Amino acid sequence: MDASPTEPRRARRRIDRILGPAYLDDLAGRSTDELRRMRDECEEEESGVSFARRMLQGRIDIIRAEALRRQHADGDDDAPRSILDALPSILADDVAATPLRPRVSRFLVPPAAQYHRRDVERLVSERSLAGLEERSPDELAELAQTLGEKESELSKLRRQLLDRLDALQEELARRYRDGRADISEVLPGRG
Fold it and tell me: Which residues touch 143 (CB under 8 Å, ≥6 apart)?
């Protein structure tokens, strides 16, 4: 059944298909090549969501730093004069003293990030970040809350993608263990 002329046809995004209820149906009946393709597309989408999430986290850090800068600006000679002065320390990677988390995403700007990046830009653009000093404390708090909610949404989305990725990896590993798939097929220069 086609959509009526007044109803726009909704394009189905890859992420919607991946998160759909039928995506993981009958993994045992699918070919190993299909499982690898599904795994690869899950990894690409997860990379896109992770990239957008990092963008959001950076913007949240900038907004919170501006609020903190204002609180400590009175009488604190060490406080940065502007948010621009504080950017290097705000955006610097923290080196954790604890071991790395079990999953470390590769730092890429994958094509799958474009949809989520546009979503982040709609919430707070680079231009609006440049005008943070003109915003009231209430506006900063509201913006930080809105971005925090979006970051939470992306975290849940990422978790769903990782769960699907885990299911695909488990099926592939099972096939390698029981000999139904040959690991040498995926090694460079082999197979």
Answer: 63, 124, 135
Q: At what angle do helices 83-91 and 32-73 cross, to 10 degrees?
A: 140
Q: What value does the CA radius of gyration of the chain take, rounded to a whole number of Å?
A: 22
Q: What is the pLDDT of residues 70-87, one digit of tens each?
A: 887 666 666 666 666 666
CB atoms closer than 10 angstroms to residue 57: 14
3-state secondary structure 113-158: HHHHHHHHHHHCCHHHHHCHHHCCHHHHHHHHHHHHHHHHHHHHHH
Among 12-16, 48-52, 100-104, 172-176, the least confident range: 100-104
Identify which of 9, 2, 10, 49 has the alpha carbon closest to the alpha carbon of residue 164.
49
pTM: 0.73
Can you give the pLDDT at residue 4? 45
Answer positive or negative: Cα dihedral of 60, 62, 64, 66: negative
DSSP3 helix / strand / coil % (the chain, rounded to 5): 65, 0, 35
Helix (H, G, I), strand (E, B) or coil at 159: helix
